[in-house]
Specification:
Helix content: 55-70%
Shape: elongated
Number of domains: 2
Mean pLDDT: 88
Strand content: 15-25%
Order of helices and strands: EHHEEHH
Radius of gyration: 18 Å
Largest sheet: 3 strands, mixed
Number of helices: 4
Structural class: alpha+beta
Low-confidence stretches: none
Strand order of the largest sheet: 1-2-3
Number of strands: 3
């Protein structure tokens, strides 16, 4: 993964957009990692994976008796409704 300072990212924004088509880019500020820039397509893929993991966790909670199905369904709906 390529790493740029926030100043480098700002100065070479067009180049940054081209780079993220190939790989994510980490942005640092004051020597600390503050962001990772990815394509919108990759972001949507990660959202789908996140939704799948929430569903799997809810199913497991139901099967293990930690949460009634209705409660797990309501929680899942609340977690994913902003998407």
């Amino acid at each position: 993964m390529k790493t740029l300072t926030s100043s480098e990212a700002r100065q070479g924004f067009s180049s940054l957009l081209s780079t993220i088509e190939v790989e994510p880019v980490r942005i640092t500020k004051d020597s600390k990692s503050v962001a990772v820039i990815i394509t919108d397509t990759r972001y949507k893929e990660l959202e789908k994976i996140e939704d799948f993991l929430y569903a799997a966790a809810a199913d497991l909670a139901i099967k293990e008796g930690f949460a009634p199905k209705e409660e797990a369904d309501e929680l899942l709906k609340a977690l994913t409704s902003d998407k």
